[in-house]
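If I may wish for something, please sit down with the protein I am sending here and say whether tokens and residues agree:
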Amino acid sequence: MDFFEQSLAVHKQKKGKVAIKSKVQLRNRDDLSVAYTPGVAAVCKEIAAHPELVFTHTMKANSVAVVSDGSAILGLGNLGAEAAIPVMEGKAILFKKFANIDAWPICVKSQQAEDIVAVVKQIAPVFGAVNLEDIAAPACFEVEAALQEIGIPVMHDDQHGTAVVVFAALMNAVKVVGKQLSSLRVVINGAGAAEMAVANILQDSVQEIILCDTTGAIFDGRTANMNSYKQEIAKRTNSRKIQGVLADALVGADVLVGVSAQGVVTQDMIRRMAPKAIVFAMANPVPEIMPDEAKSAGAAIVARGRSDFPNQVNNVLAYPGIFRGALDAGAVKITKGMKVAAANALASCVEPTADKIIPSPFDKGFVRKIAHAVAKAAKKEGVVRK
């Protein structure tokens, strides 16, 4: 099947993928008077007098805004707000399918971080949470940070959804190969939003992390091609100050996490890794190295981002459960502890083998399990509405 042609045909025929469905019937004048005027006036007055009722008397408690500026759409780059709509509609139907959350595509014309922040703050009264999506770095960092205190959870899924799934997959991969998380040397190829988030969630659990960008290994003291985000993470990673290119960083490494570009990893690089190497080659649509090539070079476990090979590491495994749990708990933010709880819950959903270290998106039960763990963590950390 040609998925590109089929997708074009479906989107044209259906005029998009999202529509509104009423929760109440409008059969006669009485129904209209209850749902709209004059009856709805009583609801408005109650919410004005008791603002917390917005969570029980409106759509807010089960609604997520999927916000993008179209600056980093999938692997396609900066295509703009209009071109982002099909992806955000897709995200909305995945929220509904996997977590029964009503999600709404919000595509912002401006690509200035302060404008996106302003838009989200202005529309926040309608929504119970905000999923930031396909916003390029560094704006994605700035937008997410600026919205953490608006009273509802805000999470950039490209960062943290990916990080949660990588962490869960790694927990199970080490069980298969007989290693310990605490002994792992991990190389992350790329230094963008997802890669930074992966480093942050793994930092307290593994022995060493080295991030590489197009210049090479990032270390504290490097001056070429650095920004404030790379400088900050350099202080917390690569304690041995390994220098050189990706091939140098991979010598003796246990794990490679690639969220970068196609074909940048060779079989020789895999051969120079530690025995029983774990390779997550997640560049889309073509990975850093093809799974069969990585395995023939000695990798014990290989995962990738696409669905047409085993071990798909994809953030669709994380964000429905994370947002479901946050909404159920009445959370006001999503913390690192909630993300770690999500990763542990996701990892526990399978008995891992080399070809299945993570559930399929269509496996039953894992979303609810993640949601329960996230809600429990939110309440334990006290980040819920009073």
